[in-house]
Amino acid sequence: MFTLLPLEDQEFKERCLQYARSVLAPLAKQLGDVNDVPEALRASLADSDIYGPLFPKAYGGTGLSAVRICLVRETIAGIYAPADTTFAMQGLGGYPIVLAGSESQKARYLPELAAGRRLSTFCLTEPEAGSDVSALQTEARDAGDHYVINGRKRFISNGYSADMGVLFARTPTSENPMALSAFIVEKDMTGWNVDWRIELMASHDIVEFEIKDLHVPKENLLGPPGAGFKLAMQTLDLMRMSVGAAAVGMAQTALDESMRYARKRVQFGRPIVDYQSTGFKLADMVTEIQAARSLVYLAAIKKDRADPSATLHSSIAKMYATEAAFRCIDQAVQIHGGMGVVKGATVERLYREIRPLRVYEGTTEIQKLIIANQLLKEAKKNEPLTP
Ligand SMILES: Cc1cc2nc3c(=O)[nH]c(=O)nc-3n(C[C@H](O)[C@H](O)[C@H](O)COP(=O)(O)OP(=O)(O)OC[C@H]3O[C@@H](n4cnc5c(N)ncnc54)[C@H](O)[C@@H]3O)c2cc1C
Questions:
Q1: What is the residue-averaged pLDDT of the chain?
Q2: Which family does the UniProt entry place this protein in (predicted)?
Q3: In angstroms, what is the span from residue 367 Cα to ligand 1's centroid?
Q4: For 49, phi and psi rounded to 5 degrees?
Q5: Active-site residue numbers?
Q6: What is the dihedral of CA 51, 199, 363, 288, to 10 degrees?
Q7: Is 10 close to ligand 1, i.e. is its CB under 6 Å away?
Q8: Is 124 in the pocket of ligand 1 (CB under 6 A)?
Q9: Banded pLDDT at 383 (limits 50, 70, 90)
Q10: 363 in ligand 1 pocket by Cβ < 6 Å?
Q11: What would you measure as the largest C-alpha separation in the chain, in angstroms?
Q12: pLDDT digits (tens, 9 = 90+) for 61-81
């Protein structure tokens, strides 16, 4: 698959691999389970220049590239999930600024994010608004030279460690009572009170927080008032297939571990890899991984070419890759027998880490809705007009 990519992308992948194996893997061993972004991880990611593909060259990046975003996530997710989350959040919190930021907003924030000097987050979900973004209740009131925001956000990744983020809130007007706007918020603004560090089944910096009279200067409004919904969807559209890439990386690690274990583990006088039932599991795993990887990079290439079908392919890739990776990792645990469920085993960790990927950035069911809608749209476009 990778040999089909342009040479520069293959070289980029090699650099990611080099970083993942020689720097990130030992660091992961040292840090273990975390529910924040430890200073050592923050510094390591910043030193690695890994954030480059999330940002345009003019603002300190190496040029926005969905393919390279996927290459990064595939390479690091199976090694250290907290590094993958930090990388993804830099994209989710940075891309709305790339898309809609004014020149001064871009100049102020993007080089900081590209260099990893600041960490970002993306604050959309609320207690009453998960899949249904239209149920958002957080509201921003126009108060002259600033907005006053009140509400509550839930399941915000990097919410504890981030220095800033993009926050979505209602800005109702008489013409559009449902209007949603996006704001750049900074952690030291008073009114951002993290009151619940949510503990997940796997390592993850994730919080719920109250927003109480958060004063945000007018200059921090991102894009025109009312542009928030479109901005949130466009951002998810870029990052969604990369969730699939992270899933592929996790599944690949599970396959590598299973190959190693199955060749070494002897039962009934033979390595278990000699049993057809193990071989079939490995065959299923590699097939699903290859299929998922192909869908992920197809979606990424389409996104980079601004192909109108990129939204459809991004949802297909996210849905298939996360579901397939879950199946593969489950098989890997089975191949490991009892050792697979021992706390601290790589496949046990992956079994916990893969699960949230089928939920965040749109559940599998929501991906199916998007895919069906896109198909219908396409079918209507191609229908001959009835007389
Ligand atoms: C690890 C993790 C990290 C996250 N990080 C962030 C973040 O950084 N920023 C952020 O804003 N959010 C974040 N989220 C929130 C995430 O996007 C939501 O959890 C997700 O969109 C689902 O919303 P919900 O949890 O409220 O589930 P619900 O929307 O309540 O869904 C519950 C169930 O109902 C199903 N369902 C809902 N509506 C429909 C429908 N119309 N048709 C069929 N089935 C339906 C869902 O598929 C699901 O199975 C994160 C979540 C997790 C778990």
A1: 96
A2: Belongs to the acyl-CoA dehydrogenase family.
A3: 11
A4: 60, 25
A5: 361
A6: 70
A7: no
A8: yes
A9: confident
A10: yes
A11: 79
A12: 999 999 999 999 999 999 999
* Mean pLDDT value across residues 297-323: 97
Report pLDDT for 193.
82
Which domains, and CATH codes, for the chain?
2-114 (1.10.540.10), 122-226 (2.40.110.10), 230-382 (1.20.140.10)
Q: How far is CA 185 from CA 59, 111, 166, in A?
A: 19, 17, 6
Residue 364 near residue 358 (C-beta atoms within 8 A): yes
| Pocket mutation for ligand 1, best pick of 95, 204, 240, 359 (most atoms within 8 Å of C-beta) | 359
Q: What would the two tokens of residue 366 be?
A: 């929501």
* Band (386; pLDDT cuts 50, 70, 90): low
The 10s digit of each residue's pLDDT in 329-362 is 999 999 999 999 999 999 999 999 999 999 999 9
d(CA 367, CA 382): 23
Select from 112, 347, 382 the least CA-distant residue to 250: 347
Helices (H), ranges, the chain = 7-19, 25-31, 39-47, 66-77, 81-100, 103-114, 228-264, 276-304, 310-335, 346-354, 364-382
Residue 151 to residue 138: CA distance in whole angstroms = 4
Q: Whose CA is nearest to atom 45 of ligand 1?
A: 365
**pLDDT beyond 80 at 387:** no
pLDDT greater than 70 at residue 20: yes
The alpha carbon of 126 and the centre of ligand 1 are apart by a number of angstroms equal to 10
Question: Taking the C-alpha atoms of 284, 290, 292 and 297 in order, what is their torsion angle to the nearest 10 degrees?
Answer: 180
Q: Please report how many Cα atoms fall inside a 13 Å half-sphere around the Cα of residue 294, on the Cβ side.
A: 7
CA distances from 370 to 122, 304, 306, 343 (A): 21, 20, 18, 37
> What pLDDT digit, counting tens, does each position of 260-273 carry?
999 999 999 999 99
Q: How high is the pLDDT of residue 385? A: 66
Rg of the chain on CA atoms, in Å? 22
Scan for tokens 């849905």, then name that residue: 319
Helix/strand/coil percent split, the chain, to 5: 60, 15, 25
User: 154 in helix, strand or coil?
Assistant: strand
Q: Is the CB of 156 under 6 A from ligand 1?
A: yes
Query: Can you read off the two tokens belonging to residue 136?
Result: 């958002």
Structure token pair of residue 378: 């396409």
Q: Is the pLDDT of residue 184 over 80?
A: yes
Residues contacting residue 330 through CB under 8 Å, at least 6 positions apart: 351
The token duo for 256 is 């590598």
